[in-house]
Amino acid sequence: SPVGQISSKLLDYQISSPTTTVTTANNPSLNTSSILSTLTMQQHAMPPNDPMNTDNHNGSSSLYFYNHQYLGQNYDMNETNNIPEILTKLIESDQAYRCTEVRYIEDIQQIHIDLTRDDGDILVVCSLLDKLCFLMVDWARQSLYFKDIQIDNQIKLLKAAWIEILIIDLIWKQCQQPKETCVNCIVSANGQLLNINQIQNPAVKKLAERYLQCVNDFRQLQWQYPEYLALKYLVLFDPDVQGVTESSLIEEVQEKITNALGEYTTDHNNTSSTSNTSSTQSQVPTNEQEKFACILLKLPDVRLVGNDLKKLLQLIDRKHDGKLLDGCLLGEMLNGLQSNN
Known about the structure:
Elements: H1 2-9, H2 35-41, H3 66-69, H4 85-96, H5 102-110, H6 122-141, H7 151-175, E1 185-187, E2 193-195, H8 202-221, H9 225-236, H10 247-267, H11 288-297, H12 299-319, H13 329-335
Antiparallel strand pairs: 1-2
């Protein structure tokens, strides 16, 4: 099976492909082929005595995943002065998050992508993206505001936003690395540096170059953790997603976060025109209002990268007769739920 292909491909790393057992005994209306439906209906909180709830690593535990591995090293989590109340709540929600899919984090840490291979190690890349989808859903279902939305609407929002959220996460992670340590490199979720000059496929290399341009643009903005977090929420809470039935509530959340982000950039603009001497210096915002606009104007670029990546994955899937990603959360996100008939 396609999932078996991915699992076989990863035997060298002793990594299994993510799978989810779907139980319909208590919910006969649940489509048994929907991994995403199952994930969103799982309990949000672990039992208090669950050993996974205990942080034994002084804040470096992989249980945090997003808010520690993707957190700027110099960010003081206790520093909330002059931060709008809405952003403070988002930060508190993010810090309260505990990953319930730790096994996938451990798998991700072991993955090694070999760009010199003719196929670009595509099965390994697909497995990596699949695991990241699980972790992204795990984060979203525990997040402020999102967990209060109806399950059907949660699914629609996640299917619309998943690729952009993953890209924003990876861009943020790379921006935390010194620029000189990752020239012409993409920083993978596990910290592996992927030199784009090793990519053989021209289309893939062009996509990688466009992604790195997004990274450089965000570096110039010198965006901060609250801004990164707000951007993810703005992408997730899109009232224009087709079929959502709580568009007014979603739009209200989006408006609150947008206003809070604008207020934050006014009070916390560290961008300085003297800090960048490159040929693109003119793109660096010179005041608070301009930074706020620049952050929002980067979203279309992120969406373009996401669309190109989805097209590439769909093309690869078609080359495998549309069966490569069957039974995977990545395939469900990418192509939508396929009929059982």
